[in-house]
Specification:
This protein has about 425 residues and is an alpha/beta fold. The chain is built from 12 helices and 23 strands. It folds into 2 domains: about 200 residues, Enolpyruvate transferase domain (UDP-n-acetylglucosamine1-carboxyvinyl-transferase, Chain, Alpha-beta prism), CATH 3.65.10; about 200 residues, UDP-n-acetylglucosamine1-carboxyvinyl-transferase, Chain (Alpha-beta prism), CATH 3.65.10.10. Bound molecules: shikimate-3-phosphate and phosphoenolpyruvate. Catalyzes the transfer of the enolpyruvyl moiety of phosphoenolpyruvate (PEP) to the 5-hydroxyl of shikimate-3-phosphate (S3P) to produce enolpyruvyl shikimate-3-phosphate and inorganic phosphate.
Length: about 425
Amino acid sequence: MVEVWAPPSRRTPVDAVVALPGSKSITARALVLAAVAAGPSRLVRPLRARDTDLMAAGLRALGVGVTEDGDDWLVTPGELRGPAEVDAGLAGTVLRFLPPVAALATGPVRLDGDPRLRDRPNSGLIAGLRDLGVRVDDDGRGRAPFTVHGTGAVRGGPVTVEASESSQVVSGLLLAAARYDEGIELTVAGSLPSLPHVQMTVRTLAEHGVQVTVTDGGWRVAPGSVTPLDRVVEPDLSNAAPFLGAALVTGGRVTVRDWPTDTTQPGAQLDRLLTAMGADVVRTEVGLQVTGGDRIAPLDADLGEVGELTPVLAALCALADGPSRLTGIAHLRGHETDRLQALEEVLTAVGARVEQLPDGLVVTPGPRRAARLDSYADHRMVHAAALLGLAIDGVEVSDPGAVAKTLPDFTERWARLLGAAA
Ligand SMILES: O=C(O)C1=C[C@@H](OP(=O)(O)O)[C@@H](O)[C@H](O)C1
Ligand SMILES: C=C(OP(=O)(O)O)C(=O)O
């Protein structure tokens, strides 16, 4: 991958049909549940990217068999064991989903990852594990590296968790809980972002035969065995966002193939959000078709449920014909980078005016100008830069290889979208 990428600019309408690889979030859950199931499972069309490869490697380190069969993954549960080292890279899913599994292993499991991973918050997860009877050694700040001292069994039971910094705390505990002696009765203290992702967790558990019920303050998972399952992974709808956004920026038409009709992916809300920005959105026999008009309308939206869509939507806001207000996303400061800060820097560099709110951004478009942007090691900041580059000549982005996190061939796919050579 080049060190600096100059995304192509384009004034004429795109007209393309795009097929995308599997969902990162569904692949992660499917791997974890298959790993703690009562027999082997098959994943068809799993996402193969850095985050999901790290999840597979982490599970292997704990004694689980994850092997390739063509493009499928075969997952064969084994006795979970330490000592082990897990490299979470920059993956929140690995960082928050594997410690509750590691608690079931016999021996210590140490988690660490990229330098930025060490800034990502886990206090709620670590406190929750401790309340469930698990010993965890950390630096006292809830940051990686930390070590989970598995003893082969976890008591489980009632627990109240603070998850305002990441819904993955809740998902991680729910995913492993059927294997805890008492299951779990999880109460959420305070706010919870990314609710669709927790609903995805609940649905994936139910698909594996786990009994999950909604309670007044959270969820209860009954103790019991996890049924193995062969599953086809849906396309990643959050990674569809930049491609669909290209329809708005160029006044063109983009269809994403195989758009699921019933999904818990937050990307399903692109339908509503892009419509609010002036696009015409319809389902066709092929998938979801988005057609842009001659302007992009500003957006006033609470993105708390769909935080991972923010970089792409904020880039569209910088190209809209009025000021936008995006709220409910304070937790983005703990994502791959502080996304509110990164978006302020990037959008300001290309000419917008940006005000950071405690929980969001106000983006006011301004005279556009060329700029060299940083990726901040964040895949979705590269997606945002690609959209800005469509409309603004002279946009460049350094370290575009950050896209490897969830869509390693993003720049080639982008070139194909535009009908250009990579
Ligand atoms: O559970 C998941 O698969 C995810 C949950 C969300 O995390 P946060 O709640 O930390 O935003 C989301 O942003 C992330 O990309 C994936
Ligand atoms: C926030 C994200 O990732 P992670 O799973 O690492 O939290 C993301 O993909 O936008």
